[in-house]
Amino acid sequence: MKTKLGLIYGGKSAEHNVSLQTALAVINALDTDKFDIHPIYITEKGEWLRGAQLEGRVSDVSVLKLSGGGASVSPMELNGALFPAKQESSEAVDVIFPLLHGPNGEDGTVQGMLELLNIPYVGNGVLASAGGMDKVVMKQLFAQAGLAQANYVWFIRNDWRNDEEAAYREVEKELGYPCFVKPANLGSSVGISKCKNREELAAAFSSAFEYDRKIIIEEAIAGREIEIGVIGNDEPECSVTGEIAPKVEFYDYKAKYEDSTTDLIIPADITPGEYEQINEMAIKAFKAIDGSGLVRADFFLTKEGKALINEVNTMPGFTPFSMFPLLWKESGLEYPKLIERLVQLALERHEDKQQIKHTF
Q: What is the pLDDT of residues 65-117, one digit of tens each?
């Protein structure tokens, strides 16, 4: 019996187009002998559209926007109705795969809705998604877990507006130049700037605050950028490592998605001891945010061989050419099988949650 798989993609986020590319790749990789594929598109304005079951491959992301062919729905109607048991609705799906990047999708909002609907879903739960999305909260959790990381400071927009000079002085005192300014709640390198002086810092603050009310500023680390994939629930496991080798000054949005100025080296050329250090830290980070399903953990590796965790991404880039699937391909798990494994993990986690008592 085939699994009815709902794919939620798009989203009211600066990473909307990245999500469309992810959805296209997943749809074309799924085995239609095993899955019925049900598209659920969130427009850039936040409208939810549910399309008819897909019968085959999709040629272009424009098809996924469901223009004129999708029924506008409340997200609370994903399984036909809110209150009846899902088995009673012919519109029900068995499991949801949220292929959403950034706010309003990767940050625990959609995950919370799916928890209320009691629908199994792929990936991290509410806490891990929210904590992994907010770089400040994430780094505070890492510090609590004893994970080594770069120095940072953070600000909210209102405090910066009240005293811009004080904010810049704090950055210069605590971090110095160069440093990186980032929105706290975005991925895909959107809104990130590298700053070498006060003028660039002021411009970077203004740019980052366009994308979020909170920003984080990190010291620049002289080291290699190493990434590792983690999958699992209570017993997570790691892939091989990969190295990001940008040919430009840093790995920004354009380098990731719009040109070929970055090399992905898989597996990374590191020592067994360095791999064990990164593996252990990645598992600890996964557990620190109470992860489930998948994360990509990103590290800096200094020339002395010390690993510093930079961040975890709870819904990493997920096309066949993205780092996370490539890491697992090198580890022996091809892209279609990786998707199937993540769906299986979602169902296992959901079944485990059903054992929790809700009465006393």
A: 987 667 787 777 666 543 334 445 566 889 999 999 988 889 999 999 999 98
**Residue range 159-191, pLDDT digits in tens:** 999 999 999 999 999 999 999 999 998 765 678
CB-based contact 8:97 (threshold 8 Å): yes
Of the candidates 235, 290, 9, the residue with the CA atom closest to the CA atom of residue 124? 290
**DSSP state at residue 149:** B
- CA angle 289–115–17, rounded 5-degree value: 75
Choose one of 198, 219, 240: the last residue of a domain. Answer: 219
Pairing of strands 3-10, 35-42: parallel
Cα–Cα distance measured from residue 54 to residue 308, given in angstroms and rounded to the nearest whole number: 43
Q: At 81, which CATH number?
A: 3.40.50.20
Collapsing DSSP states into helix, strand and coil, what is residue 226? strand
Q: What is the extent of the structural domain holding 287? A: 132-148+222-348
Residue identified by tokens 């994360």 is 295
Q: What is the dihedral of CA 8, 11, 15, 21, to 10 degrees?
A: 40
